[in-house]
Amino acid sequence: MQDKNMLMIPGPTPVPESVLLAMAKHPIGHRSGDFSKIIAELTANLKWLHQTTNDLLMLTVSGTGAMEAAIINFLSPGDRILVGNNGKFGERWSLVGKAFGLQVEEITAEWGKPLDPEVFRAKLAADTAKTIKAVIITHSETSTGVLNDLETINTHVKNHGESLIIVDAVTSLGAVNVPIDQWGLDVVASGSQKGYMIPPGLGLISVSQKAWKAYENAKIPKFYLDLKAYKKATDKDSSPFTPPVNLMYGLQVSLQMMKKEGLESIFARHARLTQATRAAMKALGLPLFAPDEAASPAITAVMPTGVDAEAIRSTMKKQFDIALAGGQDHLKGKIFRIGHLGFVGERDILSAIAALESTLQTLGYEGATPGAGIAAAASILAKVG
Amino acid sequence: MQDKNMLMIPGPTPVPESVLLAMAKHPIGHRSGDFSKIIAELTANLKWLHQTTNDLLMLTVSGTGAMEAAIINFLSPGDRILVGNNGKFGERWSLVGKAFGLQVEEITAEWGKPLDPEVFRAKLAADTAKTIKAVIITHSETSTGVLNDLETINTHVKNHGESLIIVDAVTSLGAVNVPIDQWGLDVVASGSQKGYMIPPGLGLISVSQKAWKAYENAKIPKFYLDLKAYKKATDKDSSPFTPPVNLMYGLQVSLQMMKKEGLESIFARHARLTQATRAAMKALGLPLFAPDEAASPAITAVMPTGVDAEAIRSTMKKQFDIALAGGQDHLKGKIFRIGHLGFVGERDILSAIAALESTLQTLGYEGATPGAGIAAAASILAKVG
């Protein structure tokens, strides 16, 4: 049906009506006093969401642009960096590092498995000459639904002392606890079309004092992504280049909504949605791609047996107007991914699971008792309150 | 009054209601078949607007990001380039070139005066060793209201043979004739919040075959702004990174509106608005900053005498809710700039001139006969059909 599209992908995520309507306002001049007030409010509320007093910068880029800025502003060609690579996005940061002449050492894990913090500990402990300049981690690996153990890996980085910790929090920020100041995360990048509940087009970066010190010696050339220009402007409630005015109208509203819900409630909601989705998949006999102990709060990847992943996606789209994500690269056609990030509630998850049950019947799947998925999800949701 | 803001600045420019409402639609997945159709439509219509069969690429960046991409994709550190600098933006491309290690030679003109094509001719003719790799021109210099003579300068570049011509068309594209194929412009960059009639957040670039050949030897490191990735994706009606979905909904509608109006009509409208504005300023005894023969179709800069530029801006804003732009850098407080770019009609120009006349009376200005500005503008508008 027209206009019935339901987004259950890891981004763009659904956008609240009040945010959409805010974005439909006439733009105002980005150099006006009225817009300065908006930048000030957004910066303050983003710091609240990021749990940080670090600088919080807004860039007109998508997530990859934000991560590139998070890397190139603090390093020089030839610098040795460790990149965690257990999926499409970890792989991307490795490519970015290489594109800018960094000496990239990958710490890999099979797609679908979390990175092993012990490998980071050993590498960092062995580096007595302190040649490792940065460790780059994808917190929630969107391509596989794996949440890497950032907290433990970061402990090892802190013990090293010299290395920066640079985090892709694109699908973890606003979904699971990422206490930037408490953990001492140096650079954290994310994108608007995820936990922030607005459409794509705005990149967010937090920068620590330690990272700014590294900036002074960093020699990768940059201009549009030069974060010092953003800091100088943000300190004056301004922007160095033209910002995406209407997206920022939307962000004003979405951050107000998030403050009302509260961080703890937001994280609890995402945990509940994740558990309900995973319980349903298990009850339906559909193998989960990531283990329970490393489950992303943003997305659940499923590798079905006895039924075709693409047939599931296709029927879900055609019959129920539900968009699920497919697999990327070698996982294409082998997995489907259910997004439960941002403006997603319990009704949405039940709808998706119910439609999936119906789809499985349509496709003649015989691996589960009909209704078992909803029953399992409901038992998770029943535990609340 | 609340919600009465009228934008008469060079960007963001006013946005049609139908575009705003299109932007308020729920986003869909940018990897879906439905979105591919949108990319295909946008690419075709943008090529129409750009009068080109060259590749036409959309990036999630503001204008500066688009121009950076236009520079760094086709050059290597140490390359000799000529940059026309007669305003804030010409100056910026010089800074970008230097940031990336290019050997920048500026050809300057006083702010408010156009670049002299003869200086380009002489420099290019003297370069018998063909060491000049690119000439970079700001077509419409937004900071001063000067339209540089791109056509003539480009003729000299063509006679040189080796050099690329790279154009900042941010406030000329969609306002004045920029026939990319006819003139053979290699790289042309622009931004969405100008002639395109949508809010900021999308950068546009056209790339010629000659530029793609230069790309093969270009050695400035890049990833997010690597245009080959955009070309590969665009050839498949896709995008390499997450695009600003909702802005692109808006662009769909605005391009449809522009096609309906027609290129000739759009250019004629901008010319009329420019002439009416300039006639009014002259009649009011307010000196124009740029000469008639180099008048930007996007913006008219005025350097008033006998009345304070900032007082005019302030009264226009407070009493009439009209936003005018001020001067930048050393022109701060000395000029005001009236934008007449994009979704601006004849009524808007008359409104702004009438409000300016009222403002001049409020400020006790005695340099003109009351009503002379409107009379002069009307005489221009009366000449039409």
Automatic annotation (TrEMBL), chains A, B:
<feature type="modified residue" description="N6-(pyridoxal phosphate)lysine">
    <location>
        <position position="194"/>
    </location>
</feature>
<dbReference type="GO" id="GO:0008453">
    <property type="term" value="F:alanine-glyoxylate transaminase activity"/>
</dbReference>
<dbReference type="InterPro" id="IPR015424">
    <property type="entry name" value="PyrdxlP-dep_Trfase"/>
</dbReference>
<keyword id="KW-0663">Pyridoxal phosphate</keyword>
<dbReference type="Pfam" id="PF00266">
    <property type="entry name" value="Aminotran_5"/>
</dbReference>
<dbReference type="InterPro" id="IPR024169">
    <property type="entry name" value="SP_NH2Trfase/AEP_transaminase"/>
</dbReference>
<dbReference type="GO" id="GO:0019265">
    <property type="term" value="P:glycine biosynthetic process, by transamination of glyoxylate"/>
</dbReference>
<keyword id="KW-0808">Transferase</keyword>
<protein>
    <submittedName>
        <fullName>Aminotransferase class V</fullName>
    </submittedName>
</protein>
<dbReference type="InterPro" id="IPR015422">
    <property type="entry name" value="PyrdxlP-dep_Trfase_small"/>
</dbReference>
<dbReference type="InterPro" id="IPR020578">
    <property type="entry name" value="Aminotrans_V_PyrdxlP_BS"/>
</dbReference>
<dbReference type="GO" id="GO:0004760">
    <property type="term" value="F:L-serine-pyruvate transaminase activity"/>
</dbReference>
<feature type="binding site">
    <location>
        <position position="337"/>
    </location>
    <ligand>
        <name>substrate</name>
    </ligand>
</feature>
<feature type="domain" description="Aminotransferase class V">
    <location>
        <begin position="16"/>
        <end position="328"/>
    </location>
</feature>
<dbReference type="InterPro" id="IPR015421">
    <property type="entry name" value="PyrdxlP-dep_Trfase_major"/>
</dbReference>
<keyword id="KW-0032">Aminotransferase</keyword>
<comment type="similarity">
    <text>Belongs to the class-V pyridoxal-phosphate-dependent aminotransferase family.</text>
</comment>
<dbReference type="InterPro" id="IPR000192">
    <property type="entry name" value="Aminotrans_V_dom"/>
</dbReference>
